[in-house]
Amino acid sequence: MKRAGDRWVALAAVAAVLVLVFLVVPLAELYVIIQVGSAIGALNTVALLLLMGLAGGWLMKREGLGVLRRVRSQLAQGRAPGTELVDAFLILFGGALMLSPGFLTDALGLALLVPPARALVRRALTRRFQARIDGGRGVRGLGDRGRDEPRGGSGYLDV
Residue 13: which residues within 8 A CB-CB, separation 6 or more? Predict the structure, then answer.
């Protein structure tokens, strides 16, 4: 069973991430946009942001269609497309980052859209997921069984 302290720690971690995403990142983006604007001019800064957005959209479409072809190929061969699904999620996330105005999120989004950088992130995520599975924690929030009860409990799928 989970302790109440564990829940508070998890809640504090979520709150910290939300503060980072909704307060720190926009302030950092604004600072970078102002610095770039003072260096190259306001109109050039806006043009550069638009150009990055268009390039990100094109790259997202190109990479997304490539992953879709690989998913279809894996399914046609009767295999589960695990790597391809992680790539699809990372491409979707990278595209969403490219839609938000700013150079920092565009840089991160662009990194997720470029295959070599995406492969590094995919490997890190895979290691993290594997460590959670090997640690016996599994996926949180899928029922309230204790640690001693096997997955699935009495033969029913726990979703």
Answer: none
Q: What's the pTM value of the predicted model, to 2 decimals? A: 0.73
The domain total for the chain is: 1
Spatial CB neighbours of 45, under 8 Å, sequence gap ≥ 6: 33, 36, 37
Say which residues have a Cβ less than 8 Å from residue 88's Cβ, sequence separation at least 6: 64, 67, 68, 71
Per-residue pLDDT reduced to its tens digit, 20-68? 888 999 999 999 999 999 999 999 999 999 999 999 999 999 999 999 9
pLDDT at 148 over 70: no
Spatial separation of the C-alpha atoms in residues 87 and 111, rounded to whole Å: 12
Range of the domain at 68: 41-134
Residue 49 domain flag: yes
